[in-house]
Amino acid sequence: MFVGVYCCFKSLFFCCFLLISSSELVYVCSQQKIYKTMKKQVSLTGIRLLFAMAILAVSQNVNAQSAMDFTMEDLDGNSHNLYSYLEEGKSVVIDFFQYECGPCYEYHETNELKNFYNESGPDGSDLAMVFQICTYDDATMENLTGDNGGSWNWIEGVPYPTIIIDPAVKDELLSFYQSWGTPTLIRICPDKEWDDNHPNTVGSKDQLIEWLGESCGVAANLSSSSLSQLTIYPVPANNYFNISGVDGESFEVIVTNSVGQVVRRLTSETDLVIDSSDLDNGMYNVSITSGTTHMVKSILVSH
Fold first, then answer.
1. N-terminal to C-terminal alpha carbon distance within the chain
2. CATH number of the domain within which 200 lies
3. CA distance to 17, 20, 26, 54, 247, per residue, from 49 (Å)
4. Is the entire prediction scored with pTM above 0.70?
5. 132: containing domain
6. Do 82 and 111 fall within a single domain?
7. Count of domains forming the chain
8. Cα(301)–Cα(303) distance, rounded to whole angstroms?
9. Are residues 76 and 180 both part of a single domain?
10. Residues 92, 202: one domain?
11. Averaged in consecutive runs of 10 residues, what is the pLDDT profile of the chain (303 residues)?
12. Quick check: 277 and 240 in contact, CB under 8 A?
């Protein structure tokens, strides 16, 4: 008989294992030193079970290390920078796939990511951005459309950008996001905290919206909230900008500059006109809260 107790923090780069049995084995692992105390031989079965438990523990681990930035072009030639989206207050979901990967395409065909993008992307609440990134850097358009004899079309009907990974960053990016195996879904909050998992575990539209609320601070079911029709205009703003479309509920608006300083704070129950005549040129985040619903939009001020 033995009892296994473990804690593993993959993102902190240390693991602690404690196995208690008729023979004691204590491992304490850290970045600096490894201490090992062994009184008697422990059964191989016990060790295998312990490590299996540790692997299971990290499979859904949130990583403390900030997300790795990247800039890559999609199939239409548009450039996308991860940090630019995060700094706009958007959460980002990345679907790493291989065009010959059956489980990847099974998830693709569920349209869960498409539905999430339509609801939470630029044409919806504008709180999230989605990419699908092919991890074969030598992939061609024919590979992605199935025109070379392949079975699957990866881009037909897909509203979000498709990217073939840049070979210059491939190794570093896939190693950082632990995405050598596909499919892998990476979910990144605006504060650059991220996690990795199999899409069948966390990739449904409802699960992704729930993640926005629980991990990224954006209330779930935004589409049915009083902020679902909210708009900010004109863009860019000169001496003022409007916030309209709020459905008769009290809401708070906080405007911050690029270094996080609060430059405006207002509360209203009706559409607002915000004076920006004395604000410096640049990007500003507009944080809007109504009850438990929270969203962030960006506005460019240019005089």
1. 74
2. 3.40.30.10
3. 12, 13, 15, 9, 55
4. no
5. 71-222
6. yes
7. 3
8. 7
9. yes
10. yes
11. 34 36 37 40 46 42 78 96 90 94 93 88 84 95 83 92 96 90 90 88 84 68 57 91 80 84 90 94 84 74 92
12. yes
